[in-house]
Design brief:
Elements (H helix, E strand, L loop, with lengths): L2 H13 L15 H10 L6 E5 L2 E6 L4 E4 L7 H8 L5 E16 L10 E2 L10 H4 L11 E15 L13 E15 L19 H8 L3 H13 L3 E7 L2 E6 L3
Parallel strand pairs: 3-4, 4-6
Antiparallel strand pairs: 1-2, 2-3, 4-5, 6-7, 8-9
Helix pairs in contact: 1-2, 5-6
Length: about 250
């Protein structure tokens, strides 16, 4: 079975045979979670396994897999329990390209889908990784960043005139896996530092090079500094200067 076939099977298993738009949402915000759980562990006997007083999303017998779509702070308690037992892989889905569909709450009418101008990348994960950065050097911890194309359904219930600002997310339906990036040890994070980045560099320099916002670039460098992959070497005005730590 190819990866595409396995993904389609996981999607059907999680959301039902029909992929008609009016049939979505049966699992609410858990749809992406359910699809990935069935993709990485088609055998349901591996799902929802009690370990050390908590429930692991997947336990293969040798490895625990936790699928976390947000709020990595909630992982801390599980990591404290699971990491001494066996290797733990955190699977984090990232929308690479996204199509938005708006739903009128009263009529149920759906808009035509529109492609979002925002694109996700592996750096998106650092919004969450910064919350568990003290665990990233643990020998038993692994990360699998899964870039997905997906449709996102949102309710027209926001506070703005067009009801879009502050609107609630109804569901996200993954369309396919584009790329998987594994970070299994500290050295793997080095691939996230561009070779062409001139030293010393600022947060703005780094962010510009990898095409992300400066706020996110600061989070990335904070984590890389905690991993001792980059270090401060001075200041330029109010901005810190960084360089890559030699091996």
């Amino acid at each position: 079975m190819t990866d595409e076939e396995r993904f389609e099977r996981a999607l059907k298993k999680a959301a039902g045979e029909s992929r008609e738009r009016r049939g979505i949402g049966t699992l609410g915000e858990k749809t992406v979670h359910a699809v990935l759980k069935n993709y990485y562990a088609p055998d349901e006997r591996m799902h929802e396994i009690p370990i050390k007083g908590s429930v692991a999303d997947i336990f293969t017998g040798d490895e625990i897999m936790e699928i976390q779509t947000a709020n990595f702070n909630k992982l801390r308690e599980k990591l404290d329990k699971f990491l001494p037992v066996c290797p733990v892989t955190i699977i984090y889905p990232i929308p690479r390209e996204k199509w938005l569909i708006w739903i009128d709450e009263e009529s149920g009418e759906m808009s035509a889908r529109r492609k979002s101008p925002l694109k996700g990348s592996v750096y998106t994960a650092f919004k969450e990784l910064i919350r568990i950065r003290s665990y990233l050097t643990e020998e038993n911890l692994r990360l699998k960043l899964v870039l997905l194309d997906m449709e996102e359904y949102k309710l027209l219930n926001g506070w703005s005139r067009d009801k879009k600002k502050g609107a609630s997310r109804f569901d996200r339906i993954p369309l396919g896996i584009v790329e998987e990036v594994e970070l299994n040890c500290v050295q793997d994070y080095q691939q996230l530092i561009p070779y062409e980045l001139e030293e010393p560099f600022t947060v703005k320099d780094f962010s510009r090079q990898v095409h992300i916002r400066t706020e996110l670039g600061g989070m990335v460098l904070r984590v890389l500094r905690d991993l001792r992959l980059v270090e401060w070497v001075g200041k330029k005005g109010r901005e810190y200067l960084y360089r890559v730590v030699e091996e």
